[in-house]
Write a structure and sequence with these properties.
The structure is a single chain. By secondary structure, this protein is mainly α. The protein has one domain. It has 9 helices and 5 strands; from the N terminus they run ααααααβββααββα. The protein has helices spanning 2-8, 10-25, 38-60, 69-78, 82-94, 124-143, 173-198, 206-243, 266-290, and strands at 145-146, 153-161, 164-169, 246-251, 254-259. The strands form 2 sheets. A 3-stranded antiparallel beta sheet has the order 1-2-3. It has a two-stranded antiparallel ribbon with strand order 4-5. Strand 2 and strand 3 (164-169) form a beta hairpin. Helix 5 packs antiparallel against helix 8 and helix 8 packs antiparallel against helix 9 (266-290). The longest helix has 38 residues, at 206-243. It is elongated, with a radius of gyration of 23 Å. Keywords: Membrane, Transmembrane, Transmembrane helix. The chain crosses the membrane at residues 6-25, 37-60, 80-99, 120-143, 177-198, 219-249, 269-292.
Amino acid sequence: MTWFYFVVLGPVFAGILLALAWWLIWGRKRQLSGGGVGAPTVAAGLLLGGGAVGLLLLATGLFPLHLPPEYFVWYHNYRFTSPLLLGILGMVLLAFPVHGQSGRGVADLTPRTPLTFARGWWFVTPALLLALILSVTVMTGAASQPEPSTGHYTMYLVDLGGGRKMGSSIYGWYNSIPSLILIGVLIIVAIAVLVLIARPTPAPNREHDVHIRTFRTGNVLAIGTSALLMHLGFILSSLAGTVSITSSFPTSKGSVTFWTTFAGLQPMFAGASAVAAALGFALCGAVVLSAIPSRRRAPAKATTR
């Protein structure tokens, strides 16, 4: 049983190791030095990471508490949208503390946009993930068919001839449309939070203020990217099960087994799912570790009046 836990939670352990490696090599250089954002940062990372661990345990029946069967039905229905919901809530936490426009700052006429405190390459990974998720969504949705008892587009059926078919569940329109809506909400919330971070008047200590805002902007994008990675991981895990379906029928010459023409893709989907989950957990861990306060405060920048 211990080994089974290790296999199931392998992406979690891998993500933690990656986060620690990042922190030891680069993270300590961008640590917090005040700003009152440490607690929301830790809460956001733990919310998404801890929630995703719970989903993994529910997926394999290893959840430590005895739960009624309804919870596992809930998992089956909401496993794709849950990481996105947790990511949205995590971003909302990262909006705090909210600083309003005040006269105590330094006059600055430079326009500040949601991109002011971001690096351009920070958007490459989430953009690629969005494109990949959209592509997979369209392909699986087009392949999905209505489930006979519910009418939901969650079935993938293969015609075997002779009036025989075999089928399995698939990430169809019934699952993907709510996920696409939540991805849209995730993007809107991310933009809103970045605006709240960028717009307030700069503090007197300009260097420290820029450091804090850059730190917060990076963590917002990290939580959003982590949510997309975990969402993609659940999609790929589902596809690994879909392509591995088999069916056997008795004939006059013995039993005949059928499988899909792309059954060989199952290891690739399973491996890609684990990698996506590990990277998602790594980003959550990096966000939590980034909240460790620096031992020295950023020096104040001299100003003239």
